[in-house]
Amino acid sequence: MMAPLALRPANAQEAAKDPANSNGHVSGDASAPTNEDVIMDDEIDESLLRDQLRQQQDERAQRLQAKNRRKRYLEVHPEYFADSSLELADPLLYDRLIRRFQTASEREAEGRKKGFSGQMATDLWRAEAKKDALSQPDPNSLFTYNRGPQGEIIEEEKDDVPMTKEEGRAWWVDEMTQRFLRGGDEDFEYEKLVDKNPKYDDPELERDLQDAYFESMESDFDSDGEGKEKVLTGETGIQDY
Fold first, then answer.
1. pLDDT of residue 46
2. What's the N-to-C CA distance of the chain in angstroms?
3. Does 205 or 10 have the greater pLDDT score?
4. Which of 9, 29, 149, 217 has its CA 20 to 30 A from that of 58?
């Protein structure tokens, strides 16, 4: 009696040519990564890392440049601090640093300068600021506030309260300066007026950078690195040409 025929897979011919396929393994055509592939991947990763670091440095430099330009803007335009509407930036802080030192006549003159509508707007803003100071304290504020037993606003000093009118004014200018530098003036067009404007580059800083650059160039060409003048000499001790 004849033995039954052995069943063969449909790809028996291919299996015969590549025995590895008959066991379900990957064909020899799919080669493993070579050393060159690994090196190329490492180079790509390093290139991406360099690009990311360069981008971070550029962004940091742009932020620093914008901040320096904002500082320069305030130096050129000190009238920014004299604008009566600046009181609305932080009415409670203005009360603590400016109004508390004003005389009755000074407050009256300030009210006339604002006009009736301006004074009404200031009073409304001050009322809203009191609510915000209690419900959403500003982490950048010089003072924090709590409500007293009669419903009044009570300040909790983070630092000593200014003792004189001049000191209060100095504190106010400093607080408004820090607010302006961090971009806290929502009504001011920073990018259009200052951040992209080379007009507010500090001329002294630019001059110092240029001087430092030319001094480094001169030291490279005219000295031996130790502050001594370079002298080209031959065997005779005289310059050879």
1. 81
2. 108
3. 205
4. 217
The tokens describing 14, both together, are 């291919």
Closest by CA to 193, choosing from 87, 72, 79, is 72
Question: How many Å is the Cα radius of gyration of the chain?
Answer: 37
The token duo for 112 is 């006339």
pLDDT at 195: 94
Strand-pair partners of 146: 154
Q: Are strands 153-157 and 143-147 parallel, antiparallel or unpaired?
A: antiparallel
Distances (CA, A) of 233 to 65, 111, 159, 218: 47, 82, 68, 20
Q: Which helix (H) or strand (E) holds 171?
A: helix 165-181
Q: Give pLDDT tens digits for 42-52.
A: 777 788 888 88
Instruction: Tell me how crowded residue 91 is: count the other CB atoms within 10 A of its CB.
Output: 20
Residue 210's pLDDT band (boundaries 50, 70, 90)? Answer: low
For residue 62, give the H/E element and its range: helix 35-76
114-120-124-126 Cα dihedral, nearest 10 degrees: 40
Report the share of the chain in percent with pLDDT over 90: 24
